[in-house]
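User: I'm designing a mutation panel for Vesicle-associated protein 2-1 and want to avoid disrupting the core. Could you give me a predicted structure to guide residue selection? Please restate the sequence first so the numbering is unambiguous.

Assistant: Good idea. Sequence first, for numbering, then the predicted structure tokens:
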Amino acid sequence: MLQNQGLQRLKDERDEAVRQTKQLQQDLEILNRRRSRKNMPSLSIKFSLLVGVIGITVVSLAMAFDAYQNKRAFSQQ
């Protein structure tokens, strides 16, 4: 009888360990999905900043070129 109780206790402990392992795996999957989602907006923010910097550079160059053309046209008159 004691052997059966000891065996049952070990089986119960094993089952609990398996249940906890499955729960930890599910929690890890949830955390990985959340981390993945957080990285995506970060990438889009970086991309937006890059596009903004390129846009500002292009506008600045266009304005500088226009000013150069106006100065050149004014000096030829």
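For picking mutation sites, this is relevant: Helices lie at 2-76. Residues 64 and 70 are 10 Å apart (CA to CA).
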